[in-house]
Amino acid sequence: MTLYDPIARIYDPWSRSVTEDIAFYVEHALSSGGPVVELAVGTGRVAVPIAEAGIQVIGVDSSPGMLAVARESAAAAGVEDLLDLRVGDLAEPPVTERVPLVVCPFRTLLHMRSEAEKLHALRAARGLLEPGGAFVFDVFCPTQDDISETHDVWLEREPGIEELAVWNETTRTLSLTVRARDTQATFHLHWLSAPEWRRLLDQAGLDVEALYGWFDGRPYRGDEDMIFACRRRG
């Protein structure tokens, strides 16, 4: 059982309000022409809308429970033929195809604990790209306000679903616990600064074409959210 299996059935209700990134990733998918690989596809929150736009998606996730929900969502939307779901690790994706676009939404790369693990995942993403292909992902680096407003306080994210954020500024780790009824899971997210991400991307052979501060395309100016649009070098 993976970390996300226990909350697979409450993941969509928990993340119901997270919609701001969907149009952004759909637009990139359409521009690429597809197919698209989504790493950590989860329940298909982003992949299903991409498929609804007519783009083939190969989705990789380590959680069978999350993928089961994704299959149901794809069937309900009538796009199951456009969604190829595979169990696997985002750092060792079971994908032999080379594609024009790889995406990794919703801060998933922060599950990689160390810089070495992050670099390994970035190189794996690059390895899926055809020459000139793009890799787009989002992460965060919290501000002091972000930390002080949420640290060690249970908050109701959605009706009946609570989350607890415990921030460790020394190790730069967010421990996030999600609970609903008798279901609970805790994840550890490890953040980096924008310059540190740029250095790792350069080492991975990925050139940063744009760094946004939000999904509307505004430039990054040191706030919490970072959205990187990169291009395979060589």
Question: Could you characterize the architecture of this molecule?
Answer:
The protein has 234 residues and is α/β, with parallel strands linked by helices. It has 2 domains: 5-140 and 192-232, Vaccinia Virus protein VP39 (Rossmann fold, 3-Layer(aba) Sandwich); 144-188, no CATH class. The chain has 7 helices and 11 strands. The chain has helices at 11-14, 22-32, 47-52, 64-77, 115-127, 144-150, 194-203, and strands at 36-39, 57-61, 83-87, 99-104, 129-140, 154-158, 161-168, 173-180, 183-190, 206-212, 225-232. A 7-stranded mixed sheet has the order 3-2-1-4-5-11-10, sandwiched between helices. A 4-stranded antiparallel sheet has the order 6-7-8-9, with no helix packed on it.
Key attributes of the depicted protein:
234 residues; alpha/beta; Rossmann fold; 2 domains; seven-stranded mixed sheet
SSE order and pairing:
Elements: H1 11-14, H2 22-32, E1 36-39, H3 47-52, E2 57-61, H4 64-77, E3 83-87, E4 99-104, H5 115-127, E5 129-140, H6 144-150, E6 154-158, E7 161-168, E8 173-180, E9 183-190, H7 194-203, E10 206-212, E11 225-232
